[in-house]
Design goal:
By secondary structure, the chain is mainly beta. The chain has no helices and 11 strands. The strands form 2 sheets. Strands 2, 4, 5, 6, 9, 10 and 11 form a 7-stranded mixed β-sheet that branches. Strands 1-3-8-7 form a 4-stranded antiparallel β-sheet, with no helix packed on it. The chain is globular and about 40 Å long. The N and C termini lie far apart (about 40 Å).
Length: about 120
């Protein structure tokens, strides 16, 4: 069993930055994909970014590419989402997720474990 706890959300002005953290605990495996998803009111949960835990390779949704950076710290069992140049459209609850590493990583069904989410609000 894996437990994921997000932190770092909050209120920020447009153009500002936030860094989200996702701390993982429990039984760990070497072949995991860690992902960030977000869900705005009235919308479906949306892929944001993913990282292959072993390789460190990353990918991003088009909407955040060039602004967000996903990274990991193996020693701390933590994945980060650095969010720069934030826009009001980025306002959502952000969820950390973990799943078995796969070439498919942009859909929620690929992830077995989820955090409870952290609210990010970007004011204009």
């Amino acid at each position: 069993q894996v437990q994921l706890v997000e932190s770092g959300g909050g209120l920020v002005q447009a153009g500002g930055s936030l860094r989200l953290s996702c701390a993982a605990s429990g039984r760990t495996f070497s072949s995991y994909t860690m992902g960030w998803f977000r869900q705005a009111p009235g919308k479906e949960r949306e892929f944001v970014a993913a990282i292959n835990w072993s390789l460190g390779s990353t990918d991003y949704a088009t909407s955040v590419k060039g602004r967000f950076t996903i990274s990991r710290d193996n020693a701390k069992n933590t994945v980060y989402l650095q969010m720069n140049s934030l826009e009001p459209e980025d306002t959502a609850v952000y969820y950390c997720a973990a799943g078995q590493a796969s070439t498919v990583y942009i859909t929620t069904r690929q992830y077995a474990y989820w955090g409870q989410g952290t609210q990010v609000t970007v004011s204009s």
